[in-house]
Design goal:
about 350 residues; alpha/beta; seven-stranded mixed beta sheet; Transketolase_C; oxidoreductase; Transketo_C/PFOR_II; Alpha-ketoacid dehydrogenase subunit beta; thiamine pyrophosphate
Amino acid sequence: MAAPTMDRPTSAAPAAVQTMTIAKGINNGLRAAMEADPKVIIMGEDVGKLGGVFRITDGLQKDFGEQRVLDTPLAESGIIGTAVGLAIRGYRPVCEIQFEGFIFPGFDQIVSQVAKLHYRTQGRLKLPMVIRVPFGGGIGAVEHHSESPESYFAHTAGLKVVSCSNAADAYWMIQQAIRCDDPVLFFEPKRRYYEKGEVDTTAAPSPLFQSRVLRTGTDATLVAYGPMVRTALDAAAAAEEEGRSLEVVDLRTLSPLDLAPVYDSVRRTGRLVVVSEAPSESSITSEIAAKVQQECFYSLQAPVLRVTGFDTPYPPSKLEEEFLPDLDRVLHAVDRSLAW
């Protein structure tokens, strides 16, 4: 049976399980959130008439109007600052940062205002706002369009940081982030935008700030998030052909980190490989390695190994395949762990 068309809502009730891309999952999740709460506002550069450079907000301005889907000036600091004011007044703004490298003009607003206001006011003010950030490489883009800055924000107290890796999570997690009374940075794996998956729009979703085991295994544990989850799953499938059983954990949440499923997995497998596009120094992978070796020391049969981007600025597009972790690098790390 052909997958149902997702371009525009119809008068007929939609099927509970639908096939959609990650991009369409976010779009449909935004639509559902806007239908459920008139205080939800979308704002950003080209999010209205254009529908965003990746078409994530396609059709939303047409259906909800220019008062709720706002095209803003090219000023990330102004976008974030305006959203702070709206959130204080009871709205739930959703800001789009067009590419992750453009977030830094708004960095001061995020770490000095967004992250601090709840604490600064001793809880009198809430800041229910979402900052959507397409991140990571693999699209052949120029400088400032392929970076992984998530560690900056996961390090900052007062911010929640999450990343989806599949269409179902894209659909549900964006709605959960919008409903959250704390500010949430929502990192979207842009090179995975057009990968498809099944979404049950009636099922109860997993809690927003929980990791999840996607594939069980016995020989070693792979942990990843965002764009690297697909790479980890592909590595596990390839390893199975060689008689090796790898467990795959999708972090989903980077702040707070939910490492309980990781600890449980490592206590069973005795080995851990952590995969991320971001550079390795002072990163999410560093934190995971430190905490697992602290909590699971007597269960480990090999050191925690990390497969990451290199500690350099993001390279030109001709070199990005050498920069990004791939299946071979992940399997090589698994070989090293199993040989220990």
